[in-house]
Specification:
The complex is a heterodimer of chains A (about 725) and B (about 160). Chain A has about 725 residues and is α+β, with helices and mostly antiparallel strands. Chain A has 20 helices and 29 strands. Classes of the chains: A alpha+beta (about 725), B alpha+beta (about 160).
Chain lengths: ~725, ~160
């Protein structure tokens, strides 16, 4: 629970956890009107696992605070953070719409654990879907309070009042007005939302559904936007830690005298941490390189090629996620049966901002500025590491320079916090690029095996799907297949000890990139076996009207030319579902038959994500997904030898560049009558399969392993048989 | 050995006492309080630390101070004049040409360097000259569009 949450409850006289005066509350919030909203069922459901994980009570107090200040400005306090996904804009839009104020009148206070209500973290494309509804309820309640106050002030019945841009007026006498600022002045009203607010219906939206530019854009183009590494504190020192050469290495001997000899450098130990400190970041880098250490590294005979057999071998028995009909009967009904194994390597998050944190410890309190997707879990982690109560830790997330699921573990922030406590000075820990590649929680390598059959009329008769370490997200197929089984081994993508040689974790749409690559590649394999055009083949096997519409929109906008693959055109299509959003992608590729190099020429993506809050923001996310997806599809793969990570920077680990940029077209399917769905991840899941299918269409090469490097494509191009 | 090094930084003469082999990036960020120039890799691969030195695009993480002495350095903080955004900055805002924003200063400085040399680049020239500046969020499409629109705006501004 945040400090504000506790003091809010106390102010309302609800189970006061500590004696906090009304004065204290007002110091925190100032005057005005404050509304808090409790978790709705959906939110409770999604947060339940986190609650267990962090052994912390779900804050059954609130998920959102909305304040209308005495100056008429609206503040939104949310535990979510901004890392480029644009919720700093879309949440403000939702709030502005319900309150009937301009977006410019809304201030967002994000992720500060002292000020904002508890939140599990920003990931899973959940902010808009799950946080949006309670925020709107809070805003609607605040509007009701303001209207009640206005009714008294204007001496006009509530039902005769309307609001425009933060000004309440008498509908029968529009000159008779009172502003939110005037209404909030001198008020000390706190409400907990305990009844259903009357939410605006879609047709009344004036701000939601309209495009808004990013609210953080000016700060980001002028260099004013602060990231964790830009925080400066008096007396701050920069720390670099002694790092092992490989995961699992044990320190045998260490000699830090070389580092200590560097002018201005000092060495501290805190338990297992050996850190070099210096007043400058380059000074500390020079010094840490002079620490001599000997390590014992256990042998492990695994690399990026042998990992797949290993994974299948160590996988636990699978969980059946879904099954129906009779697979044996399905195979018997097939005119062609096709089996294949699909492989996907480890992928790095590689945000341009490496993990960074500044920590300051004074008077028993610790403040941490960290690049993190999970400020509240970090508060708990830091309290535990420092041996102090949670309320003595404050996490302040500045702008986050890219997360993609990678900034959820907070190792760097704990390192900074421990060193700050140990030295009594503010400490900055900013990982080098090599540290970023080493400690990254890679997207796990995974294997998918599919055995399927196609029968009369191009109908898929059987579908037997097993995924190893890609988890359940995106594993279940959505075609109308009478006999089918989907197995995930294990059900989640996390493997136990002995599975992966290093840490793995969530990477933008966890598991779904792999699952969609496998499923949609195999659908095309079946289409080719049946001699049917891939779009037509999908249409024949789909009954879901939403997915059919996505398929039609994608193919139509692309200008799909019906033909059996390989047609030589280089067109490919793939469909998928992620975070409640249905997505389709058609691509055109150019494959160099001599080198195997793939260039994506054009991408046309359509998605049905329900009500779109900010079409501009949603489009940006789609474009980002499509561009980022080129990397995992074509080049990105972490190479390793045993527990040693061989890629340490962008020279060998290639991420998408300007020269790769295809023409990109995005379509948001109109579904404003449906609740909003996720937007930050869905469009990335279809990139691999659409390209794989297009490569097959171009040159007849079916590539079963991502990334589809030039070598792998070349090896898959069928050799011409001499006639 | 520390030396006194003078150079022009964002149109003002600046003097620092520093080791001549320190990289400009760190002097900007830690001595001069200009944190808009970012550290992304420290090896010259990502372009987050891009600045202009005598009008040329340079990686400040690879540029020692002794090469900066007497030079004219412009960082992202030095582009806006009298509170008015530079046309490239304005175009980035208008096109939402960023997500997390961490690579943005480097992108903008690289684009400014390109336009200073070649005020009317083709799309291919833009792609070529931006190729070594990395963006992980995938804002590439909008960055290119923003640069094209800055070219357009500048052309209109120059012509009577």
């Amino acid at each position: 629970m945040s400090r504000r949450s506790r003091e809010f409850l106390d102010y309302l006289g609800i189970d006061p956890p500590s004696a906090v005066s009304r004065r204290r509350f007002l110091e925190l919030f100032g005057g005005g009107i404050v509304v808090a909203v409790s978790a709705n069922d959906l939110l409770a459901l999604q947060e339940a696992p986190a609650r267990r994980r962090f052994a912390r009570q779900l804050p059954d107090d609130f998920n959102a605070f909305v304040r209308i200040g005495e100056d008429g400005r609206v503040s939104c306090f949310t535990g979510k953070i901004e890392m480029g996904q644009g919720v700093i804009t879309s949440l403000a839009q939702m709030l502005a719409d319900e309150l009937e104020v301009s977006v410019d009148a809304v201030d967002m206070v994000m992720g500060d654990t002292d000020l904002c209500p508890w939140d599990m973290g920003t990931f899973g494309s959940m902010t808009t879907r799950f946080f949006g509804p309670p925020l709107r309820v809070a805003a609607a309640e605040a509007r009701e309070v303001l209207l009640e106050l206005a009714a008294g002030k204007l001496e006009v019945p509530r039902e005769k009042l309307s609001v425009s841009d933060g000004v309440v007026f008498d509908a029968t006498d529009p000159a008779h007005t009172v502003s939110y600022a005037e209404l909030a002045k001198g008020q000390k009203i706190a409400r907990i939302m305990n009844r259903e607010a009357v939410l605006e219906s879609v047709k009344d939206f004036s701000i939601v559904g309209r495009s808004f530019n990013r609210r953080d854009a000016v700060a980001k183009v002028t260099g004013e936007a602060q990231y964790a590494g830009d925080i400066r504190r008096d007396g701050m020192v920069y720390a670099r830690l002694l790092r092992p050469p490989a995961h699992g290495s044990e320190l045998v001997t260490v000699d830090a005298s070389g580092a200590e000899a560097v002018e201005g450098a000092s060495v501290v130990r805190d338990g297992d941490l050996i850190a070099v400190l210096h007043a400058t970041p380059d000074g500390v880098e020079r010094a840490v390189a002079r620490v001599k250490a000997e390590w014992r590294t256990p042998e492990l005979d695994l690399d990026q090629d042998s990992i797949f057999d290993h994974l299948v071998e160590v996988a636990p028995a699978g969980e059946v996620l879904d099954q129906g009909g009779d697979l044996t009967a399905g195979i018997a009904a097939a005119t062609a049966s096709m089996s294949a194994t699909y492989l996907d390597g480890y992928v790095a998050h590689a945000p341009i901002e490496t993990h960074t944190a500044v920590a300051e410890f004074s008077n028993g309190r610790c403040t941490i500025w960290a690049s993190t997707q999970t400020p509240f879990p970090l508060q708990s982690q830091a309290a535990e590491a420092l041996g102090i109560p949670e309320e003595k830790v404050r996490v302040v997330p500045p702008f986050v320079g890219g997360g993609f699921g990678g900034k959820t573990y907070n190792q760097q922030a704990i390192e900074a916090a421990r060193l700050a406590k140990r030295t009594g000075r503010p400490v900055q820990v900013a990982w080098s690029r090599a540290e970023e590649f080493f400690f990254d929680t890679f997207r796990p390598a995974a294997v998918v095996k599919i055995a399927a059959g196609v029968g009369e009329g191009g109908r898929i008769t059987s579908w037997d799907y097993t995924t190893y370490f890609a988890g359940s997200r995106g594993a279940e197929q959505f075609y109308d297949i009478p006999n089918h089984r989907t197995v995930a081994a294990p059900e989640g993508w996390r493997g136990g000890p002995g599975t992966h040689p290093f840490a793995t974790g969530a990477w933008r749409a966890p598991g779904n990139n792999t699952n969609t690559f496998a499923r949609e590649s195999h659908v095309d394999v079946l289409a080719a076996a049946a001699g049917i055009d891939p779009v037509e083949f999908r249409a024949r096997n789909l009954t879901d009207p939403k997915m059919k519409r996505v398929l039609e929109t994608t193919a139509g906008s692309f200008g799909w030319k019906s033909s059996t693959a390989p047609s030589g055109r280089g067109q490919g299509i793939a469909l998928g579902i992620d975070a409640g959003t249905f997505v389709g992608l058609a691509v055109e590729v150019d494959v160099n038959p001599e080198s195997g190099h793939v260039r994506v020429v054009r991408m046309v993506c359509a998605q049905d994500m329900g009500l779109v809050i900010n079409p501009e923001g949603a489009t940006i996310q789609m474009e980002g997904c499509l561009t980022m997806g080129l990397g995992y599809a074509l080049s990105e793969e972490v190479r390793f030898s045993g527990r040693r990570v061989l890629d340490t920077s962008f020279d060998t680990y290639e991420i998408p560049r300007f020269s790769w940029l295809p023409e990109i077209e995005t379509i948001l399917i109109d579904a404003a009558d449906q609740p909003p769905q996720g937007g930050g991840e869905p469009a990335i899941i279809v990139v691999g399969a659409a390209i794989a299918n297009a490569v097959f269409d171009a040159v007849g090469a079916r590539v079963f392993r991502m990334p589809m490097t030039a070598d792998r494509v070349l090896a898959a191009i069928p050799k011409e048989t001499p006639s | 050995m520390k030396q006194t090094i003078s150079f022009k930084l964002n149109h003002k003469t600046t003097t620092v006492e520093t080791d001549p082999d320190r990289m400009l990036l760190w002097v900007l960020r830690t001595e001069l309080g200009l944190t808009g120039t970012k550290f992304g890799c420290g090896e010259g691969f990502c372009g987050s630390c891009t600045v202009l030195v005598n009008g040329q695009v340079e990686r400040s993480c690879q540029l020692p101070m002794n090469e900066v002495a007497g030079a004219e350095v412009v960082t992202v903080e030095g582009l806006a004049e009298d509170g008015e955004l530079h046309p490239v900055q304005a175009a980035f805002v208008e096109h939402d040409a960023m997500q997390c924003g961490f690579c943005t200063p480097g992108m903008i400085m690289n684009a400014c360097g390109l336009l200073a040399k070649n005020p009317e680049p083709t799309r291919q020239q833009i792609l070529d000259s931006m190729d070594n500046n990395l963006c992980r969020c995938g804002a590439h499409k909008r960055i290119v569009e923003a640069i094209e629109s800055a070219v357009e705006a500048t052309r209109k501004g120059v012509e009577p």
